[in-house]
Amino acid sequence: MKEGTPYWDRFAAYLSGDLSDAEREEVDLWIKSSPERQKEFEEARQIWQNSGIRLEMRDADTVEEWGKLQSRISENPPESDTVQVTGNYSLWFKIAAGVVILAVALFILWPVEKMIDIHAKGEVVKVYLPDSSKIWLNVGSTLSYPEDFGVENRRVTLSGEGYFIVQPDSLKPFIIKASLAYARVLGTSFNVKEDSAGVVLTVAEGKVSFSSVKSKNKQKVVVTAKEKAVVTSDEGPVKSPNSDAGFAAWRERNNAAYDHEKNNPKEYLVSRYSWEKNKINMSVIDGRLANKADLAIYTDIVLNATYTKPNGKTSTTTFTLTDKLMPGETLNYQKRLLDIFTDTQKVTVEIVSARTVSSADL
């Protein structure tokens, strides 16, 4: 829940009704994460109510409040040795006492989380979160998440642009906060881009709930594959079809890991195959190629099929698979060899080369 201010600051804003629906939902999720948290919340609520005050705690400072109180007393010293706290003095004592009580209580009940900040400076950075969710950060972007991420909740803050592949967890929704918007998901793949104009969410797979952080905007939209939504400072979210197939192609630029995948396809293409003679004594290869790369899309995959004859001599056939093999996907193929008149002893299949296709060209 930390976003640059103490937790009791946000908590006080919650109790005073000074949060948007999206922000209140985020606090509610934290409270409901455990019975112990719910109990602590009720205790804190009672402290707030019993303090006899209703303050906007955006920039509350207990030292400053005590200073104001002392200054007020110094300007109007009591006329006798017996001090009677009445009128404005009583109000100031209530304010100062309430602030101190709330600050101490929430310091105990709601300790400050330790945050982990990841910055992508001169190149794209790939991040694995503790729940195995995978994120790419564009150049100049920052991702922040609590040190105990995944224990009770899954919340991150994004500044800039990131592509997310979120691991499913129905009990702990994955929540992303950008400057103007919230994205809430269970498990899917999508891109979030933040710039001076607003925040753009583009979904590759699954669905994402998207909303504005502005308190006056109550609207939420559910964005699915091949759709996008935009939130600006003036309106949103507004949903529309996505016609840009290369919306996440930025991951291929300024990315040393992608360059290695592109230049070394044999390291990322895994071949499995078997062979047998058919009814006319022809060797038939049943093969399966898997793409283990994170980003590289391979096509024009060249393979050599070599069979060994009884006398030890070999013969090689070269063939090409022109399908596009996406990261994480597999491709089945079959190849027949011209060894009808040979009692083939052995067959091997080797990957020779492959060409990489940019996602922007799909």
Task: Characterise this structure.
- The chain is an alpha+beta fold and 362 residues long.
- 23% of the residues lie in helices and 36% in strands.
- It has helices spanning 7-15, 21-31, 35-50, 62-75, 87-109, 256-263, 265-268; strands at 115-119, 125-128, 134-137, 142-146, 154-159, 161-165, 174-177, 181-185, 189-195, 198-205, 207-212, 220-224, 227-231, 238-241, 269-277, 283-291, 297-308, 314-321, 330-336, 346-357.
- The chain has a seven-stranded mixed beta sheet, with no helix packed on it.
- A hairpin with a 7-residue loop joins strand 4 (142-146) and strand 5.
- Helix 1 packs across helix 5, helix 3 (35-50) runs antiparallel to helix 5 (87-109) and helix 4 runs antiparallel to helix 5.
- The chain starts with 6 loop residues before the first helix and ends in a 5-residue tail after the last strand.
- Mean pLDDT is 83; it is low at 1-7, 52-60 and 80-87.
- It holds the Pfam family FecR.
- Keywords: Membrane, Transmembrane, Transmembrane helix.
- It comes from Fulvivirga kasyanovii.
What does the secondary structure layout of this molecule look like, with pairings?
Layout: H1 7-15, H2 21-31, H3 35-50, H4 62-75, H5 87-109, E1 115-119, E2 125-128, E3 134-137, E4 142-146, E5 154-159, E6 161-165, E7 174-177, E8 181-185, E9 189-195, E10 198-205, E11 207-212, E12 220-224, E13 227-231, E14 238-241, H6 256-263, H7 265-268, E15 269-277, E16 283-291, E17 297-308, E18 314-321, E19 330-336, E20 346-357
Parallel strand pairs: 5-7
Antiparallel strand pairs: 1-4, 2-3, 3-6, 4-5, 6-9, 7-8, 8-11, 9-10, 10-13, 11-12, 13-14, 15-16, 16-19, 17-18, 17-20
Helix pairs in contact: 1-5, 3-5, 4-5
